[in-house]
Amino acid sequence: MNNIPEVKLGVIAVSRDCFVISLSERRRKAVVEACSSRGTDVYEAKTTVENETDMLKAVDEVKKAGCNALLVFLGNFGPETPETLIAKNFDGPVMYAAAAEEHGDDLINGRGDAYCGMLNCSYNLGLRKLKAVIPEYPVGTAEEIAGMVEDFIPVARTLIGLASLKIITFGPRPQDFFACNAPIKPLYDLGVEIQENSELDLLVAYKAHNGDSRIDAVVKEMAAELGADGNQYPDLLPRMAQFELTLLDWAEQNRGARKYVVFANKCWPAFPKEFGFEPCYVNSRLASKGIPVACEVDIYGALSEYIGTCVTGEPVTLLDINNSVPEDMYNGEIKGKYNYTLHDTFMGFHCGNTPFCRLKAGAVKFQLIQNRLLENGQTPDFTRGTLEGDIAAGKITFFRLQSAADATLHAYIAQGEVLPVATRSFGGIGIFAIPEMGRFYRHVLISKRYPHHGAVAFGSAGKALYTVFSYLGVEDIAFNQPKNMLYKDENPFA
Predict the structure, then answer these.
(1) Which tens digit of pLDDT belongs to each residue from 222-268?
(2) C-alpha closest to that of 98 among 136, 133, 72
(3) Which residues of 113-142 are buried (b: 16+ CB within 10 A; e: fewer)?
(4) Strand 293-294 relative to strand 260-265, pairing
(5) Residue 452's closest CA among 322, 268, 264?
(6) Rounded Cα distance, 409 and 475, in Å
(7) String of b and e for 372-391 (b: at least 16 CB within 10 Å)?
(8) 395-431 pLDDT, tens per residue?
(9) Could you tell me the sign of the dihedral formed by the alpha carbons of 239, 247, 222, 358, in that order?
């Protein structure tokens, strides 16, 4: 993954000048040691902040050390103004956490009152309109603070990545997929840049890579990944290798002042005929490298995929929330074996963009729907190039960050799993199960007018995603609510 940031975390301890400074310093040292014992490297700033001059010195110290994220640690009550000005003067995400008291027989000189100090810290952050991450329960022992640091790192990695992200698109967002035509103004509010290009620009760049000396090496890499069973069209690999190099070169040549790049590309109906293949397998390979390529010029899909990549540090995918599970399949293969109702299940599908490592037995095939449309259902030629197979079973998080028509940001997060049940269908596809999915589908996805695309992170990533969306100022973060928790528009008599 060379398209996501590496977090270098620093810790700055703060101390109210009417408290013993050594208490905060001793507790800071214990936090650093606890982090180290858990395999987390943390730079320990030697400057303890009691006043504004200390604050400037400490921030300069962590910047010179190369830190791009911070823990501000209240080892005791803490000085409200200097500790919050750290977040203002440091260019990167900041988490605040406070020390719990340690011993019942040391509550005179050894009492730090950081429990109280966090209240004033939060109040002062609000006065200055400063963003910061505050854990669910931000007071703890050194070991507990180290756990909070572990939770903070994927959040920090995501926020750092978004601050230097460019989304590159090719082609207009397609007709009859208006759900992908969300306003782009909120991208700038998030600090994300966008570069929109024509499909012709991409075609010209692709043709310029004809005969590229690197194609053979990429073909060998593709063949090795696919294996004998997956490499069903060896003659197609050079075309797709040429396209992969085209996208990678475009990213490198057009990142400009940005460090990280993702794509949202037009992939039908003109693409396969003009390029000579479907781009899906190449898209999957770039996603495996940490460079998601969203289908159908889905800009917010690409943004969501990148967020998931940063949060998990692993490949993600983008799927249609596609079709219901037939009742006979549910009764025969799911009911009684897994604790889900029929309406908790659905099939997530896309033509073939899911990374090979996320499929049970992936293979390059042809796009059945486009073959019907563009090749009249005949022997496939240029509609080949999808990566197909059932998605491997395991925990997943379905989520999306989306702009509404009024240019306000909304998000949803729903944790569940892919069931180990054969889909008996085509494409990159899996049977997904999410508790109370039926109600979530009706009262979030439909009521809040989300598009049919959802990003999928592999694993339970909801905690970090929620923190990221909250930090970004997203006020409406929906989730799959339990039965005893009605949605705002849910009929209580239904």
Answers:
(1) 999 999 999 999 999 999 999 999 999 999 999 999 999 999 999 88
(2) 72
(3) bbbebbebbbebbeeeeeebbbbeebbbbb
(4) parallel
(5) 322
(6) 8
(7) eebbeeeebbbbbbbbbbbb
(8) 999 999 999 989 999 999 999 999 999 999 999 999 9
(9) negative
